[in-house]
Design goal:
This protein folds into 2 domains: about 1-90 and about 175-205, 3-Layer(aba) Sandwich (D-Maltodextrin-Binding Protein, domain 2), CATH 3.40.190.10; about 90-175, 3-Layer(aba) Sandwich (D-Maltodextrin-Binding Protein, domain 2), CATH 3.40.190. Helices cover about 30% and strands about 30% of the residues. The protein has helices spanning about 10-20, 50-60, 70-75, 115-125, 140-145, 160-165, 185-190, 190-205, and strands at about 1-5, 35-40, 45-50, 65-70, 80-85, 90-100, 110-115, 130-135, 150-155, 165-175, 180. The structure holds 1-O-pyrophosphono-5-O-phosphono-alpha-D-ribofuranose. 1-O-pyrophosphono-5-O-phosphono-alpha-D-ribofuranose (PRP) binds near residues 155, 156 and 159.
Length: about 210
């Protein structure tokens, strides 16, 4: 039995679709309601958790593998083994600012609002740029509108949220997609089962 931690929300639908395409019977997930643990036959057991907690559960080995976005992995910076790029949940980390604002040639210290302070800090340090960082929990696009920040570091998928809130991309930081992560001890103890899971997922990915 392989225990899989799945990220609730944005990645959930695509993960379940990928498992179904890979031949896993996902019907127990159709009416799961608020259940957080669902058994999928004799081979797989899935749990649903917040992205950061998926990383923690895999790190502690209480689940063998997990599906989580590269954005969460970059922000948490934990030494966790990424075994596969699942190639969905594609988006990118960007710096965005109100149209026409040049944050790179600003006289005073720029303030950046973000859900991802470590990603933002690492990026601006790489540019030797001194910035103030304010952590926001969501709808980060609001921060420049409310003048809490000059710009944001956030994930962008379609670009619609930026556009509808008067912001534009001023720098690209990194591409993002969903990753399959694995606990190193589980990979030794359940090598064949985990390799089988990778095989069916990569087959389904190509289908
Ligand atoms: C994410 C991200 C942007 C938006 C980008 O937010 O933080 O706000 O999606 O998507 P788009 O480029 O397709 O418009 P999410 O929906 O996860 O909610 P949150 O802002 O509450 O974190």
């Amino acid at each position: 039995m392989v225990n899989i931690a799945l990220t609730k929300g944005r990645l959930e639908d695509n993960t379940v679709k990928l498992l179904a395409r890979a031949g896993v019977d996902t019907t127990p997930l159709l009416n799961k309601g608020r259940k957080l643990v669902v058994n999928l036959g004799s081979k797989y057991n899935v749990v649903f958790a917040k992205a950061g907690d998926v990383v923690t559960y895999v790190e502690y080995g209480v689940t063998d593998v997990g599906v989580v976005g590269k954005d969460t992995l970059m922000e948490m910076g934990r030494p966790i083994y990424e075994i596969m790029d699942l190639k969905f949940g594609k988006c990118k980390f960007v710096v965005a600012a109100p149209r026409g604002v040049d944050i790179f040639n600003c006289e005073r210290t720029t303030t950046i609002a973000t859900k991802y302070p470590d990603v933002a800090r690492t990026y601006f340090e790489s540019l030797n740029m001194d910035v103030g960082i304010v952590k926001i929990e969501g709808s980060v696009e609001l921060a420049p509108i409310l003048r809490l920040a000059d710009a944001i570091v956030d994930i962008v998928e379609t670009g619609k949220t930026l556009k509808e809130n008067g912001l534009e991309v001023v720098a690209n930081i990194a591409p993002i997609s969903a990753r399959l992560v694995v606990n190193p001890a589980a990979l030794k103890l359940k090598k064949r089962e985990i390799e089988d899971l990778c095989d069916i997922l990569s087959g389904a990915d190509k289908a």
